[in-house]
Amino acid sequence: MTINDDDDYVQEMRLAAKLHRLPGIYERDLTSRDVLRMATTSGRQVVLFDDVGVLAPGGPADVVLLRLDGMLDEGLHEPGFDPVDLLLYRGKREHVDTVLVAGEVLLEAGRLTKVDKAKVLDELRADAARARAMLKPEVRELVAALRPYIERYYASWFRERGAPHYHYNLRG
Fold first, then answer.
1. In whole angstroms, what is the distance from residue 17 CA to residue 89 CA?
2. What is the pTM of this model?
3. What gap in Å lies between CA 121 and CA 46, rounded to an integer?
4. Spatial contact of 14 and 89, defined as CB atoms under 8 Å apart
């Protein structure tokens, strides 16, 4: 799951890195490797699974293979650059070439291998149309009529706004 509908997991990692920066030149930021670890191997601690998040014999073998060519095409990188930095700060979903889940190839050369995307989208559109058709006009009218009262009721919940800043951006 991602914050928007582009399903770009690298973008989520980049956002996590930026949100966890502290102000000031002496503060230690998360490194690209810290963020990658958070997004991969550290996740297993959250879900309490010891057998996920690592590549090991007999393990589930979830692997993502990336194409570096699109990230390196500008020729701006010195020899010895950290490829994890490159991934975090220049990587995009279109750099994903191959995805294996539990050892099974689900994406190869950037194309889905097990799912007909067009067919799934057609089914979703049909389901959405059926759901809209079931919503009767009188229900829509009732919702529209009740909306101002509901908004007024909940408006009082947010009068106390608290601090106008995120604590990581607090300058004090």
1. 10
2. 0.64
3. 32
4. yes
Give the tens place of pLDDT for each residue, 41-85. 887 777 777 766 677 787 777 889 998 887 776 666 677 788 899
Q: List, as one string, the DSSP characters of 86-112.
A: HHHHH--GGGEEEEEETTEEEEETTEE
CA 38 – CA 101 distance, rounded (Å)? 19
* Residue 57, in any domain of the structure: yes
18 and 67 assigned to the same domain: yes
- 103, 18: one domain: yes
Instruction: Show the domain range for 40.
Output: 9-112
Both structure tokens of 148: 């101002």
Per 3-state DSSP, the chain is made up of helix, strand and coil in percentages (nearest 5) of 50, 10, 40
Closest to 104 (Cα-Cα) out of 73, 62, 143: 62
Q: Specify whether the CB–CB gap between 168 and 30 falls below 8 A.
A: no
Q: Are residues 20 and 90 in the same domain?
A: yes
